[in-house]
Structures are given as C-alpha cells and as structure tokens.
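Bump. Still looking for glycine oxidase structure tokens.
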Amino acid sequence: MADNSGSATGLLAVIGGGVIGLTCALAAADAGWRVRVFDAGAEHRAAWVAAGMLGSLGEGHPGEDELLALSTESVRRWPQLLSRLGGHSVLAAADSLFVAASSADAEHLDTLADFVWARRPRAQDDLRRVGPTEIRRLESAVSSRLHSGYLAIGEGAVDNRRLLAALREALLAAGGEVIERRISDLAELADADDILVAAGLGTSALVPEVSLHAAKGEILRLRRTTWSVPPPTHVVRARMHGRAVYLVPRQDGVVVGATQYEPFDETAFAPDVGGVTDLLSDAVDLMPGLRTYELAEAGAGMRPCSVDGLPIIRRIDERVLVATGHGRNGILLAPYTAHVVLDVLRGAAGRRTVGATNASDAINQGVSR
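Sorry for the wait, here they are.
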C-alpha cells in the first residue's frame, strides 16, 4: 500500500477504463502514483451511452438530500477538472434550461426547485424562474407552447465521448498506462500496491461484498443536416406531459435522453422500441425542428446502481478499494469520486466506512458509503 505521509510511492492498478476509473487514475497520477489502468472495453459502458449533464440543481429530487449534497460538491470541482483537460474541447454547454409543457408539469418543476431552495438557500442566485417569452429568447427553436421553466446558471454538460478520450490522453501524458485487458481475479494484480476496482457492474464479480444492480438507460444521438435548425446552446431539460426528456448539444447535433428501466431483462442490451418512440416523440414536441435531423444512433447502456442510490467509495482491505454504484450520475460525480479515492489512498480517511450518515459528513470525512 502507498504510504500515508501524503507522498505516493506505489503502483496503483485501476480496474475499469470508464469515466470513474480514468478520472481517479488521472488524479492519482497527478499526485505522484504510478498508475496502470486495465480496460476491458467499451461494450455496454454507461459513460459511452450518456449525455454528460453536470447538474446538481437538476438532481434535486425530494428524498435525495444526500445525492444533492454530493452532486453540489462535485459540480464545484468540475471547473478544475475541465481546466486540467483543456475544457474547451470537452464542454458542450454552460447552463441548463428547465421547461414545462403544462401547468401540471410546471408544478412538478416548482416542487423540485422548492426542494433545492430549502436545502440550498443561496441556490436562488443560480436557479431562477423564467416565463415563455424568456424561454424563447434563450432557445428560439423550442416549442412556443411551453408553459414556464427555470434557468440553472453554471450547470451545463460535457461531451461524454470527448471526455473519455481527453481523460485517457491526459493520463498517458502524465505517465500512466492503459492496458486493454479484462481482469477476472484480483490475484492477477499481485505486483500492485493498491487496487482500485471501478469496473461498474463488473465490480461485484471481483469484490462480492459490493452489492449492485443494473438499470438500463437509452439515449438517441441526432445529427444535424444542411437544412436543420442549429442545436440548442443550453442543456434543455423538459417535463412533457408527465415524462422527462432532455436535449444536450453536440458539435454535430443533439443527444436526446433518457429512459431508465429498473428492473429489466438483463439479457436485453438493445434499445427498446417503446423507449425510442417516446424519446423521439417528446424531443420533437419540445423542439419541432428536430424533425429534419438524422437519427444517427440509438444506444443502451447499463448503469451500476447501489441499494440506496449513492456511490460506494471505500476500502475493502489494505490493498483494495472500490468506486462504483454511481447510477445515472457517473459523469457528474467523477471529480468528487476522484477526490475521495485520493484521500483514501493517502490514508487521510483511514479505513473508516461511512454508512448510514448524511452526505455532508461523507464529504467532510472523505468517504462515501
């Protein structure tokens, strides 16, 4: 194990080449660890089939107080990570626009906003109500029939696939290694001083005491054509007659998301016709000009979820630690996760595991779950 003095001296083996594994690996390499990432490939990788939204305000659902606290802390750390990666090529949008199609949808958004404001009084500086006229001023191509909404300042999105490439490139430049290999047993890594298992759903096969279940999520990638209206400049998160849909800009089009099935047939990896139909219908209702876009991709990914919806970041023994269970929030929570993992590696949090406690304690102690 690396020493506890704050200086890294050992070899860290990271199992998992997704956003959590790579972000943690880069943080460790920057702190002086020798880092070797083992990547089993992108098949069904959650971060590959994602929109890359960075929204703590948008994750403020009643009953998810701890997740709101973790998300807020992680969003605060994102600018530093973007700067480390040369964020101009990774950032897809700077702000988010929440919109409602009906009065009932507006009431739902109001409930979420009130929940956030009750727990973060200063959030009113960053989350403010907007009416139909301002919605159209901010995004002229959205439907003229929208009821109302909120503008979330500073809660944007990254291009998930550019992010993965940038993390890998930065890690290699920092002296880390990436090895295309599936690890089936931790005994294969006998030369490592520390092992971080960040293999998503594959974590449980390597560390049986970590309990996870899968949630299937679908996204669509729409490509702009010569005659299409431009993509939105904001992340547009809508409530359309009781269903949630979002549009996230890309250089060549829009990512539309997202469904979530939990539980589901874990042998069915392809997108469902019903899910794709609902996403397309709601997206076109929200932004009619999307009719002229091309359907470039319909993808499904498997999200690793914990029992209580919070990430699992902790030591298992003197050599092994895990970082998994981020569900739909892997990209959002990546910088926070890397911060906690680095603290655990340095011994700052010892071997203490924070269990049934509040998120502010988890943040202060450097360990979640």
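Residues 153 and 309 are 26 Å apart (CA to CA).

Edit: fixed formatting.
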